[in-house]
Amino acid sequence: MFIDRKFPNTRLRRLRRNTNLIDLVSETNLTSNDLIQPIFIKENFKGSEVIESMPNILRYGIDGALKEIEDIVLSGVNTIAVFPVIDTANKDSKGSEAIKKDNFMSASIQAIKKQFPDILLIADVALDPYTDHGHDGIIINEEVDNDETCKLLIEQSLILAESGADIIAPSDMMDGRIGLIRQALEKNNFKNTILLSYAAKFSSKFYGPFRDAVGSSSNLGNSSKSSYQMSSNNKQEALQEVAMDINEGADIVMIKPAMPYLDIIHLVKDSFKIPTFAYQVSGEYCMLKLAISEGWLDQEVMLESLVSIKRAGADAILTYAAKEISKEIKINE
């Protein structure tokens, strides 16, 4: 008996028959140009050392950092974000070392830009690597004082810009600091210095390994940054934070962390149409790396995670896997 079956006219599987077809109609493509490699540079140190809580990631003296940056460039990554690891002896309650013109970070940036003039260098603006209490600002009456902290962030930003940083990235989450820093940059003839604002930085439990890497974890102890970093429960507040920073002069906005906040990345990009970066933070990276090393997840899960962040709307991604993934992309080209 003949049965007239109603087969579908549209068969989406036609476009999945082989990898060439899949690549041809791909909606989201991750390239080396989308990746930013963070680097930890340690004061009064030579060579490199292991960070116990971060697989395959090292702290470098400036000599080691220059060698690492050469490898990063060869991998195809053109942008780095530098984070200082400050000698304990140079930390104090006000983060005074951050505003010294001849400080370690200033010298490191100058050395990097001298050897790699074409690389894009992002410099972190925050006091937590420099304070003996691990907070991103000055503590007055047992609270992080917003306005007094902003005064120091302005000075720190000018020093980093003068040192040669292409992009200044305030990660502190103090109210009003973007407008104040922008005004100071304009006034001091740094009109072309780009402001990348950590506009929606959440008070997250995914930051632990990073704090170990820069040496602020032990200083912070059980103290919380929830009075200035955003609550993970909030979405509309993120839009308000981003809108404020855009109005104050941010050129690019950052969402941090990335994968637990894909909805925020998408919402921000869709709402503002401004260059939007995301930070796959240390906890995200380490979680995936551990699962891969134990054989619980396939190696390709790292690439998949980054594609998901790009698909959500991120124009670029800070990730500790940038160099590794960029090499993988080049092999598959």
UniProtKB/TrEMBL annotation:
The active site is at K201 (schiff-base intermediate with substrate), K256 (schiff-base intermediate with substrate). It catalyses: 2 5-aminolevulinate = porphobilinogen + 2 H2O + H(+). Pathway: Porphyrin-containing compound metabolism; protoporphyrin-IX biosynthesis; coproporphyrinogen-III from 5-aminolevulinate: step 1/4. GO terms for biological process: protoporphyrinogen IX biosynthetic process. Coiled coil: none annotated. GO terms for molecular function: porphobilinogen synthase activity; zinc ion binding. Pfam families: ALAD (PF00490). Mg(2+) binds at E241. Keywords: Heme biosynthesis, Lyase, Magnesium, Metal-binding, Porphyrin biosynthesis. It comes from the Bacteria. Its EC number is 4.2.1.24. GO terms for cellular component: cytosol. The keyword Cell cycle does not apply. Belongs to the ALAD family. Homooctamer. PANTHER family: DELTA-AMINOLEVULINIC ACID DEHYDRATASE. This is Delta-aminolevulinic acid dehydratase. It comes from SAR86 cluster bacterium.
